[in-house]
Amino acid sequence: MYTALKNLLISDFREKEENFSIKLTNNKKIRLNLSLDIPTAMYNHYTSEITINPATEGIYQAKRTFNEALKISNIKHMEYTETKALKLVSRGLNIHECMHSIYTNPYIKEANNLGEKEKEILNIIHNMVEDIFIEKNAVKKYEGLLPFIIFNSVFYERFWKDNDKPTLLEELFNYINRKNRFNYCNTLPKPRKEVDKVYKKIKKVLKKAIRNKNANKRNNYTYKIYELLKGNLKKEEFSVGNNKLHSCSNLSEENFETKDLDGENEDFGWEAYKFIKDVDRDRESEIDINHDDIELNIIRYNEQSINNKEKYSILLKEIRKKYKRIYEQFKNVMVDYDYEIENKKIIGQMIDSRNLVDHKKRYWKSQYEITNIVDFSVMILIDGSGSMDSYSKDIIGILLCLHDILYKYNIKHSIVSHNAIFYENDVNINIYWDYNSNNKESSNILEYEPNNSTRDGIVLRWANKYILEKQNSRNPLLFIISDGLPSHVKENGKVYSVPYIIDDIKDSILDMKKNGIKTYPLAFNTSYEDLEKLYGKSYRCDNPNMLINNLFSVIYKKLIK
């Protein structure tokens, strides 16, 4: 029954998975242990140790659930074997615990004042909140890893074992987990009236807890949930049983022979078992940052549609009204800019030294001729992945405002989005406005429609070449707008994702700097710290207003410099 597991417990898988953990968390202290003595997996914040049970509940042996999980998690080109099931389960657990190491703060100060039983309940609530947060929010920044999380969630949902006689509190926790984590199969059972009543009392605080990006604030909400539950439950209801979910009682030491293991491993007990040589060889998640087989599709929107023209006129009026303050502020900056340039020419540049030979060109330009003196260009390179879809209306409005102002003051600019097609070797470059477009093409900005994923390395290399070829200003600016870290899967299943792509993107940015292109990454509704690991100094933009203000703030600095 356990042949596959026994055969796969070999020497170099633990090292490979541990190396994966170190790269993902960027923490060299991370250590990975394998054990069949724990229910699923755990992370020790004090020792930086991840411990996972690859044979959790024996779920790797469930072929039908495996295939269903593959389908729901969109992992393709893979057929069931116990070996592959073990690999996917192990990687999912490892990723989950890595997210805990990055985002979870295990210390809740109020716990010091609680008894052991109360502290146990608080810890359960805390772990539940953190589990939901990392699987529903944090992991979104690593889109290439999300399928593994979904895969495991589907498995656990199918094999979830409630206690025979659960307390009301246990029923509540089971319901919350099913509703917020294991909800990919649409099999959420309706809670008992008593459970639903308690759930509604903590619902608002729970939502705040699982959505808050600050670990300390999540801990504060966790304790509020604890207090609400304690205040609304009877003493006998405010308890949990001794049974644990996903117990491994069906997997005991008797099921395995240890005498065949290498002598050096025998001393470590179950932690000595290491599995799956060449873990990435036959799996979907094999990393590939090479762009040689990627096809760039340059899509130019040179002709505007009649529908877009009409929509554009209506929307532009709304945008000018909505961002009236920005229009006025830019106008004032441009007045000051002209004044500063004029003064500089009067005081220090009465004669241009480049024209001393030709007496006809010795004189400085008069004020009315200073209309084309802005010596920088702007390119907007915007994330066109599916995660931007819910903000597409706001993004289009910001792009229209920016374009309308830059066009009015004759500042050369280009507006481009990019996206990579999942499971295809295609990357689309969508040019809505070229440096040399005419005003009739302005409505093409409305064509912005986010979908699929992104593959930034090759796009940045294209942008470098495009900027150098299409404009001739001495100070080209590139604004990189993104709501998360790039991720893409080729048609052969190989993944382009962090942390392996860091050097690829950093090299692209470095090439731009060598060519005099200044880059300004804007982290839209995401962690700017994460973006800085790839692009360098980034601007935090938690909402559309912060995004448009940061965009113009940089441009203002260039004008009044």
UniProtKB/TrEMBL annotation:
Domain VWFA, first and last residues per copy: 377-561
Classification via Gene3D superfamilies: von Willebrand factor, type A domain
InterPro entries reported in the protein's UniProt record: NorD/CobT, VWF_A, vWFA_dom_sf
Domain of life of the native organism: Bacteria
Name assigned to this protein: VWFA domain-containing protein
Organism phylogeny: Bacteria, Fusobacteriati, Fusobacteriota, Fusobacteriia, Fusobacteriales
